[in-house]
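Input (structure):
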């Protein structure tokens, strides 16, 4: 698929690229980085990470790059950074679930999808009050 014809002007090419990338956020953040639009890259990655429900490592990577991009932006959006941090904390809580809880719930850490905040509370409240207290204190 060729996005650009040979006779397109640079402004038309840019508009075509922006239209294409709007439909493909998994690529849009790369273009935002290349054009030093770090705020946009951060926002796009955060939104993509929020949609990620299958792979915890992928979600954590997107959130980490989002955080770096937000910090590199000329004017960081501190509310967005706080949101990124909250999601990174949820990833950390899931990674540190006690093995006994994971086994008790019939889950497998290697194949387990991303758990929601509600699911983490349910898992944590089932047997381990120390984990639940830690989770509530830091969320």
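Output (sequence):
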């Amino acid at each position: 698929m060729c996005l650009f014809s040979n006779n397109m002007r640079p402004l038309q090419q840019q508009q075509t690229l922006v239209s294409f990338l709007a439909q493909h956020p998994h690529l849009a953040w790369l273009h935002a980085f290349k054009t030093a639009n770090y705020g946009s890259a951060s926002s796009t990655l955060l939104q993509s990470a929020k949609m990620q429900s299958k792979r915890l490592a992928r979600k954590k990577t997107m959130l980490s790059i989002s955080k770096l991009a937000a910090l590199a932006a000329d004017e960081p959006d501190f509310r967005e950074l706080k949101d990124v941090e909250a999601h990174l904390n949820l990833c950390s809580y899931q990674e540190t679930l006690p093995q006994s809880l994971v086994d008790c719930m019939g889950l497998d850490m290697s194949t387990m999808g991303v758990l929601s905040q509600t699911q983490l509370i349910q898992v944590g409240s089932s047997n381990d009050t120390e984990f639940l207290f830690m989770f509530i204190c830091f969320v």
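Notes: The mean pLDDT is 81. Residues 96-139 form one domain.
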